[in-house]
Specification:
The protein is an all-alpha fold. Helix content is 70%, strand content 0%. It has 9 helices and no strands.
């Protein structure tokens, strides 16, 4: 569903998604990690509670140098290739498997053509991603904020990670599916089309779930007391106002658009190469 190539069987599509998804994941980290570091510091590191995006960048460069922006990049660099490839593999396999069930291919009224299989595949893909991503995110955030971590605590914050990921990837896949059906010519473009479509879909999805991303960073970064999610949200609003939930969205938006747009260029062209090589036959 993330491409307009002629589809193979569900197992083969899953295997292809697993392979090209590695390219998406590693590209995303290489392009976006410095902005992700700034975002995380603004959300979850003491001493950066009031700094702006530019102020956080300046303070990081002054105290840690350029390498400080890439602190914590190792876990997501290899991990992102794994969980993003898994996410695309599970989605493509589940989406293609649903071809045999007509009820899952019936358009949902009032959704401009959205099919239930997109939602079902999105939840499956999000859950698979969250299981792999959650400990890697914790390790990354602890490194970005200058903390240590223990193996036994790597799944701290899994529930909020899962909620964030289901919302994030659900919206992303819905938008990509809509773009694929309504403006397919953009998918045939080698560069500009994939960059704009994926960058836009990912950024809109992040805007919708940003409060959960903020809370995830706080929980995994040991910021504040351990409290239930709803209570943590209310405390953040009380201390910082409603827009405190959207702290770090500036660097987050830039990271999302640039990283996901660039990554989709790489992955969509890899999908075309797979077809040309006859691997879908």
């Amino acid at each position: 569903m993330t491409h307009n190539e002629t589809r193979a069987g569900w197992l083969k599509e899953g295997a292809i998604g697993l392979t090209v998804g590695v390219l998406y994941g590693t590209t995303s980290v290489m392009v976006g990690h410095p902005l992700d570091t700034i975002k995380t510091k603004m959300q979850a590191q003491r001493g950066f509670e009031r700094t702006t995006m530019v102020g956080t960048l300046s303070k990081t460069l002054r105290t840690q140098g350029l390498i400080g922006l890439y602190r914590g990049c190792v876990p997501p660099l290899w991990g992102s290739g794994i969980f993003r490839s898994t996410q695309f593999a599970v989605f493509e396999a589940a989406y293609t498997y649903c071809d045999r069930h007509e009820t899952l291919k019936t358009e949902i009224p009032g959704t401009f053509g959205l099919q239930p299989r997109v939602l079902l595949a999105g939840v499956c893909a999000s859950t698979a991603r969250a299981i792999i991503e959650s400990p890697l995110e914790l390790a990354k955030i602890r490194r970005q904020t200058g903390q240590s971590y223990e193996i036994r605590g790597l799944y701290k914050g899994f529930s909020v990670t899962w909620l964030r990921t289901v919302g994030l990837m659900g919206i992303y896949f819905i938008l990509i599916d809509s773009f694929r059906r309504n403006i397919p010519q953009f998918f045939s473009s080698p560069v500009l089309g994939p960059f704009l479509l994926s960058g836009t879909a990912a950024t809109m999805a992040w805007w919708m779930v940003w409060p959960l991303e903020n809370m995830k960073s706080q929980v995994q970064g040991n910021y504040g007391k351990d409290t239930p999610l709803a209570q943590r949200i209310m405390l953040t609003v009380r201390e910082r106002g409603f827009f405190g939930l959207y702290r770090g969205i500036g660097p987050g938006t830039l990271r999302s658009f640039l990283a996901n747009g660039t990554s989709m260029i790489v992955m969509s062209n890899a999908q075309k190469i797979v077809t040309k090589m006859g691997l879908r036959d």
